[in-house]
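Sat 14:20. Reprocessing the chain from the morning session after the first attempt stalled halfway. Input below, unchanged.
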Amino acid sequence: MPSNIRRNQLFVASCLALLVTSLSFGIRAGILDKLGVQFGLDKAELATIAATAFWGFPLAVIIGGFVVDVIGMKRLLVFAFILHLVGIILTIFAGSFSNPFWALFLSTLSIGMANGTVEAACNPLVTALYPDNKTTKLNHFHLWFPGGIVLGTLIVYMLDQVNFGGIDAWKIEVALMIIPTLIYGYLFSRLSFPPTERVSKGISTGEMYRSLANPLFIFMLICMFGTAITELYTGQWIGVLLRNVTDQSLLILTVTTGVMVVGRAFAEPIVHRLSPVGVLVMSAILATLGLYLLGHTSGNMVFVGALVFGIGVCFFWPTMLGFVAENLPKTGAVGLNLMGGVGMLAVSLYTMFMGGYYNRLIAGKLPAGADFNQYNSSPAGSEMRVALDEANRQAGPEVINVTMTIPIILTVAFIGLYFYMRSRKGTNMQTVA
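Finished this time. Tokens:
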């Protein structure tokens, strides 16, 4: 490592950038229902807004993966800083626009692209900074994603109890993201960056692109669809899906992500003992059990489900990236960023599909011939609102039950991967090109 590279400072700045990324998820999850009420948005419109972050992310992360070796990680992170500021400001002033839906759509797109740009630069940065301990350090880096969601949901929960004298609490909650954004932008502007690992090892661009056709890499891309949906779709929508099942639905997300923070902080002994593939098998099984509990229980047992689910999805994202970084290093930054990109794309598509499906479930539980829009705009406490709340209560767990099929499929896939890797490389699991 060159002497001018301040590894620890770069890692801290990367964690702050990811903290902003995760705060945007946690705070948006906490205010999503409020935005719907304030601006008269139905579940399909809310799903479209939420999904925008998930397809803005892959757009940025995939493009970033292709250009990071050319323009450098530093320029990408400056771009992320600008996009974060634009997205935050647009969200705060969404009500000033004639059509708040489009203001929220564009703000979420901007933040999603900023989040993807952070991943595009910081994942290869972490592997370049710690070439001998990739999976563990990626877990340490990615603990700031659930960490930020915990902070974000707690911020929403606490500030919702405060009277800001006519100012909407959600605007204050969103504005708080400006602080870590300014700090990470300042730090990255002052630090020198190393080359990516692929460049430092002299792997040619052509060899990198050829490596993307490796069947093992394609298999991992497909599995990334499922791991990302299981973790991120459920996390983003859990407050909406379970709002009518428990009065503390937002705290369920806090419990889930709090477990993820602890798990990723202590990832090293777990990863070394079970191997990355063993961790993925365990994660898929526990994620399935957690979703089952969330979809079939109520009251305090929902929090038990959240705890089990949090343990299940804890290692999914960083371990998927770590497996590719360790076993398919020639795919370089493009390989890592394609993994993140397709994962977020899958979440985006699934979110939009399930938003419409959720609306249909709710409509099917209302009286025959009911006007869904009329029920959705009815005042609190009215007969229509009570009926709509009951329909929501029944429909949310059904959406979770449908999603549960994904980790079931992943369990089978990862068990197959475990035996494949064992037969190919033995128990030591040597790196393959």
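The first helix runs from residue 7 to 39.
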